[in-house]
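ugh ok fine here u go
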Amino acid sequence: METKEALLKKLSDCVFDMEDEEVVDVVKEYIACGYDPEEGMLRGLVDGMKRASGLYEEGEYFVPELIVCSDAMYAGIEEFQKYLPDSEHTSIGKVAIGVVEGDTHDIGKNLVKIMMETGGFDVCDLGRDVPLDKFVDYVKENEVDILCLSSLMTTTMPGMGIVIDKLKEAGLRGKVKIMVGGAPVSPAFAEKIGADGYTGSAIEAVEYAKSLVDA
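structure:
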């Protein structure tokens, strides 16, 4: 039987090397050894995606490579979810998430969505290039605890602040907590636009979201 660390590395490598079929077999092997599925997702699959994102930032991987890496990660997560205890699917809060208007980059948003669901949240994915008024309308028409806004472009970042202003104008700001994220976003920017928080990774996003619903 392989050690947990060895299998975690295999999971990470499958994502990093874009092996969307092999990753399913490694997940099954990992589970057969009795190891924790959530740890496999976080320290295996997500780690591989982080490594791929690092090469993207260095200019060695490009968007097509990232997409195939994310396909491998999603394939692994889908297999892992079959082995999660039912208790882990109990909703601890409702989240709406989307990429602001003008931005079609959604790999980070998709990763946060998956990790939120894994962490116990009920998530509505509004998609990418979401019209700013659609965020406001969703909050108005639905019970939602947290609204997550994502942007990977400096040119679309201001849309996050506009959404918050529109929520204030509609008298809805007090109804929902707002989290923001994306490569160009910072804690200072989040504070400036009046968001409730910023996180730099999907794992941090889940923990911060839990702190918001517990507050």
